[in-house]
Specification:
Layout lengths: L5 E3 L8 H15 L6 H4 L11 H9 L6 H15 L7 H10 L4 E4 L4 H11 L7 E3 L12 H9 L8 E4 L2 H10 L2 E4 L15 E2 L2
Parallel strand pairs: 1-2, 1-4, 2-3, 4-5, 5-6
Helix pairs in contact: 1-4
């Protein structure tokens, strides 16, 4: 493999789903008289969930939550997500990559159905030649496997390729796979340590 590729993280990088999902959970906590601390939520960003906001809220309340609240939370989340457009700069990066014949892929710690459904809604699914998501064979970041598999499928040398990430877990995965790593933090990750990336941009 001697070619180059561009591999983007999805949540928080292509589409800022992180903000919307956090907002919905924070609203649920607020409705029950508790504050969902950002520092707790940040533990989940870019990796498989290690903090369960539903169980933690039940623990703080000392009682089970009504299952019907799940339906309301999902409805509110779907409403916010449906309004999202790709993060600023993403579409121009895709166009620039296409102009110089650099294939583009996605490496995500989310399930494939989540990523695929959003890309189809945005009308940009066909701009990604491969999508590698967390499954039985590909562990969540910070494990570098998703980036390694993406480069392999795109026929690219990781050392000649670029990754774009928004979180420390994602940066660790991309760097571990050997890609030049660009960190693009957003509101929920701007205060986190992204210094392992080769460059941090707005």
């Amino acid at each position: 493999m001697s070619g180059s590729c561009l591999v983007l993280d999805f949540d928080g990088t292509v589409l800022n789903t992180e903000d919307s999902v956090y907002q919905v959970w924070a609203e649920l906590w607020d409705d029950h008289g508790h504050e969902l601390a950002l520092v707790d939520w940040q533990r989940n960003i870019g990796t498989e969930d290690v903090f369960d906001p539903w169980i933690e809220l039940e623990n703080r309340l000392g009682r089970p939550l009504e299952e019907a609240l799940h339906e309301g939370r999902h409805s509110r989340q779907d409403q916010l997500l449906a309004e999202l457009e790709p993060r600023s700069g993403v579409l121009s990066w895709l166009s620039e990559a296409e102009a110089i014949n650099v294939p583009v892929g996605i490496a995500s710690s989310s399930p494939s159905e989540w990523v695929e459904s959003h890309l189809v809604r945005l009308g940009i699914r066909d701009r990604f030649l491969c999508i590698v998501c967390r499954d039985d064979e590909v562990p969540a970041k910070p494990d570098p496997t998703s980036y390694q598999v993406a480069c392999e499928r795109l026929g690219a040398d990781p050392g000649a390729s670029v990754a774009v990430e928004d979180s420390p877990h994602g940066v660790t995965a991309a760097v571990g796979a050997g890609l030049f790593t660009v960190a693009t933090p957003h509101r929920l990750t701007v205060g986190l340590d992204l210094s392992a990336a080769d460059i941090v941009v707005g």
